[in-house]
From TrEMBL:
It comes from Marivivens donghaensis. PANTHER family: CYSTEINE DESULFURASE (PTHR43586), CYSTEINE DESULFURASE 1, CHLOROPLASTIC (PTHR43586:SF8). Its EC number is 2.8.1.7. Catalyzes the removal of elemental sulfur and selenium atoms from L-cysteine, L-cystine, L-selenocysteine, and L-selenocystine to produce L-alanine. This is Cysteine desulfurase. Belongs to the class-V pyridoxal-phosphate-dependent aminotransferase family. Csd subfamily. It catalyses: (sulfur carrier)-H + L-cysteine = (sulfur carrier)-SH + L-alanine. Keywords: Pyridoxal phosphate, Transferase. The keyword Protein biosynthesis does not apply.
């Protein structure tokens, strides 16, 4: 049974006040708060168990290595990957997508080759491909969502042509909450022999993820959005694609033998994990994923669907509030502006005075902002510990904004 009050009790920061008001944290799309079990794991990792991994035979090194490597299988279970050997640890989705750009795409793509992207993408799934455009003459082909922010999977597949070498698409928009039918995109792209990279930064925290069912070649997650530490993340890379990759970074751990005239590399996934990693961060991510799996991602999805439905009804009752997009299938993420208000930063500041934390800006999605015809918006993004009562507090704070700016 999903008990939101019991879950809230696991997050110490939710007990604090901001500006004399109980904290209403609605900036989960940027980064989620951490449960006590993750905080304890991080503290214990540094205070009692810290050592470098893979390189020592002493007790602490073996302990740290065991905990660090056990996270690989936790990630595998969380996204239902076929093998833990297909899980590469990263510092987050940004590093993960850059890894694919440098290690897989750059050696294979030539001038005129195409990458299909959607306008919904976060900059982390845009800029690495611009590098290839600038440096190698790769062509970026853009697919736009409809007026409500839905992304038609057939429109993505229609953009695939003889020169398409990759489809890179988000699973869930960080601005509009749009859930993209990546399974249909992957199936259609596979028929044409085109690999698909899925940015799962937002989706993995809101719903169950099964990369085998999706059928993608690459899938990125980031720990700090999954109630884990910043500086942690993982990339699922299908074995077929991993065999096509060259090392991206060189250093310790990713080598087998190093000589003056030659070098041989470690087996994957170690081959793509150079240097001392984020040891405690990765262990903390594993604890966070275990925490989520114990709750059940199906239960999280049901709770957040209820929040989304309730918030949608309440926010659409404010006829001076401009909600950006209305996707038919979305996470509990709402992007908005207010008639007569100044910059969204002004709205965010007023909300903060009421203890309500939201995001304001372009949300690292400037192509989508251009598509929507705005420079910036406010975004309220809900997590599993948020409640209907907090939706009401958001609405009350927005009504104060309207009074101040009207």
């Amino acid at each position: 049974m999903f008990d939101v009050n019991a879950i809230r009790a696991d997050f110490p920061i939710l007990k604090r006040e901001v500006n004399g008001k109980p904290l209403v944290y609605l900036d989960n799309g940027a980064s989620a708060q951490k449960p006590q079990v993750v905080i304890d794991a991080i503290t214990r990792g540094y205070a009692e168990e810290y050592s470098n991994v893979h390189r020592g035979l002493h007790f602490l090194s073996n302990l740290a290595t065991e905990k660090y490597e056990s996270t690989r299988d936790i990630v595998r279970k969380f996204i239902n990957a076929p093998s833990e050997d297909e899980i590469v640890f990263t510092s987050g989705t940004t590093e993960g997508i850059n890894l694919i750009s440098y290690a897989w795409a750059a050696p294979r793509f030539e001038a005129g080759d195409e990458i299909v992207l959607s306008v919904l993408e976060h900059h982390a799934n845009i800029v690495p491909w611009h590098f290839l455009r600038e440096r190698q003459g790769v062509v970026l082909k853009w697919v736009e969502p409809d007026a409500n922010g839905n992304l038609d999977p057939q429109a993505v597949l229609d953009a695939v042509g003889p020169k398409t070498k990759l489809v890179a698409v988000t699973h869930c928009s960080n601005v509009l909450g749009t859930i993209v039918d990546v399974k249909t995109i992957c199936a259609g792209a596979r028929e044409q022999g085109v690999p698909v990279l899925v940015d799962g930064s937002q989706s993995a925290v809101h719903m169950p993820v099964d990369v085998q069912d999706i059928g993608c070649d690459f899938f990125a997650i980031t720990g700090h959005k999954l109630y884990g530490p910043s500086g942690s993340g993982a990339m699922f890379i299908a074995k077929e694609r991993m065999a096509e990759m060259r090392p991206f970074m060189g250093g310790g751990d990713m080598i087998r033998e190093v000589g003056r005239d030659e070098v041989s590399y470690n087996d994957a996934p170690m081959k793509f994990e150079a240097g001392t990693p984020g040891i405690v961060q990765t262990i903390g991510m594993g604890v966070a994923l275990d925490y989520l799996m114990n709750i059940g991602m199906e239960n999280v999805a049901r709770h957040e669907h209820d929040l989304r439905t309730y918030a949608d009804e309440k926010l659409r009752g404010l006829n001076w509030l401009n909600l950006q997009g209305n996707p038919h299938d979305k996470a509990a993420i709402f992007s908005f502006t207010i008639d007569g208000a100044g910059h969204p930063h002004d709205i965010s500041t007023v909300l903060d005075k009421k203890g309500v934390a939201v995001r304001a800006g372009s949300h690292c999605a400037m192509p989508l902002m251009d598509h929507l015809g705005i420079n910036a918006s406010c975004r309220a993004s809900f997590g599993m510990y948020n409640t209907r009562e907090e939706v009401d507090k958001l609405v009350d704070a927005l009504e104060l904004c309207h009074e101040l700016f009207a």
